């Protein structure tokens, strides 16, 4: 009984948040802190509507003083609301170029300074990656990436793509993994309490002095740490029932 009214409210909220975020972007276009503010604008009301209880342990993320590459596991479209509450200041993300055609959201996403990549055009994708390196090194801005490249529905981590790690090595900035407990198949939108989710950030992984020869080991290390953390979070939620 709750699913339909919730979806109607969420649809209305998505439109209102999009309009407000678009106005913010028009007032201060391409300000890298727009992403954090818009993320909160989408996240906080939505979590209340959905009655999702999210517990966070992200000190390493917010205590980071320099630019970094943030990597997180990607489970569903609800990540916008779940992860929106932990986006740190001056953080932008990388998204598909097609996002800019989503009404309201696409335009505010662009005005927030996020990087849009045409994955079907290798030359333009490479140019965008070079831009992100300059952003990390000289603009005091971090970049948020989903290294799996697509949603995994909580079925364990998919193989990581190289882009995020190449960016971090090229810019010499640390990587901070952000892990979200498996929720995509456990969320109960037809119940009063939709479920519990845990988010934890791991200590920064330095990349200074690494080269592309170190790329495979770096990717494997990050994936192993994130997989172990997600399993721990899932187990903690099971034990807390």
From TrEMBL:
Belongs to the 1-acyl-sn-glycerol-3-phosphate acyltransferase family. Its EC number is 2.3.1.51. The HXXXXD motif is essential for acyltransferase activity and may constitute the binding site for the phosphate moiety of the glycerol-3-phosphate. SUPFAM superfamilies: Glycerol-3-phosphate (1)-acyltransferase (SSF69593). It catalyses: a 1-acyl-sn-glycero-3-phosphate + an acyl-CoA = a 1,2-diacyl-sn-glycero-3-phosphate + CoA. This is 1-acyl-sn-glycerol-3-phosphate acyltransferase. Residues 68-183 form the Phospholipid/glycerol acyltransferase domain. The keyword Ligase does not apply. GO terms for cellular component: plasma membrane. It comes from Aquipseudomonas guryensis. Signal peptide: none annotated. GO terms for molecular function: 1-acylglycerol-3-phosphate O-acyltransferase activity. It holds the Pfam family Acyltransferase. InterPro entries: AGP_acyltrans, Plipid/glycerol_acylTrfase. CDD domains: LPLAT_AGPAT-like (cd07989). Keywords: Acyltransferase, Lipid biosynthesis, Lipid metabolism, Phospholipid biosynthesis, Phospholipid metabolism, Transferase. Pathway: Lipid metabolism; Phospholipid metabolism; CDP-diacylglycerol biosynthesis; CDP-diacylglycerol from sn-glycerol 3-phosphate: step 2/3. GO terms for biological process: CDP-diacylglycerol biosynthetic process; phosphatidic acid biosynthetic process.
